[in-house]
Design a protein that fits this description.
It is built from 5 helices and no strands. It is an all-alpha fold. The protein has one domain. The model has no long low-confidence stretch (mean pLDDT 84).
């Protein structure tokens, strides 16, 4: 068995080390998570004093907004942890009680499915919020038929993409078994 030339070995080590160029991006995602937390707290602080005078419809919209932010933060966390572990380095935090059970087990295919599922959920919540605002003059933005049609179409594209991705993963897994 022959050894690789030194130049080739050094080149491959350099390529492998280049994965660390992703580390600042994951740090940026952590900063983005902090930004979402600030926005969540700001929204909560704005609406809590209004809770006794808020209509039922408005309270549902507020809750949907908070859920939307939470799902976006969950998605960010999944991408942050899984992406770092899959593409940069394993997180050496030990087996603490707080360690999420999915950490270290989500591969690229699983990350892709979690990502599309989260996008579909976020899109669905956004669509539901817009449907609840139909006919309300106090809505932040007035959506007409055209805008609502686009929102539904985009949501259906996300759903179809998720179904197709799941079907491809299923076919791929099935072909590996054969």
């Amino acid at each position: 068995m022959s050894q690789k030339p030194a130049l080739e070995r050094k080149f491959e080590q350099g390529l492998f080390a280049s994965r660390w160029l992703m580390a600042p991006m994951y740090l940026g995602l952590a900063v983005s998570l902090a930004m979402l937390t600030v926005i969540f707290v700001r929204e909560l602080a704005y609406y809590v004093p209004q809770v006794l005078t808020m209509s039922v419809d408005k309270s549902i919209l507020v809750v949907l907004t908070l859920i939307d932010l939470t799902l976006a933060a969950n998605l960010l966390l999944i991408v942050l942890f899984s992406g770092y572990e899959n593409f940069v380095s394993k997180l050496d935090i030990g087996d603490t009680v707080d360690r999420p059970s999915w950490m270290g087990t989500v591969d690229f295919g699983g990350l892709k499915m979690k990502l599309i599922a989260s996008i579909v959920a976020i899109s669905g919540i956004h669509l539901l919020k817009r449907f609840m605002e139909i006919g309300q003059a106090s809505a932040e933005e007035v959506f007409g038929d055209r805008e609502l049609t686009w929102l539904v179409t985009i949501h259906l594209v996300f759903v179809a993409s998720g179904v197709l991705m799941a079907a491809m993963d299923w076919l791929s897994a099935r072909s590996k078994k054969a």
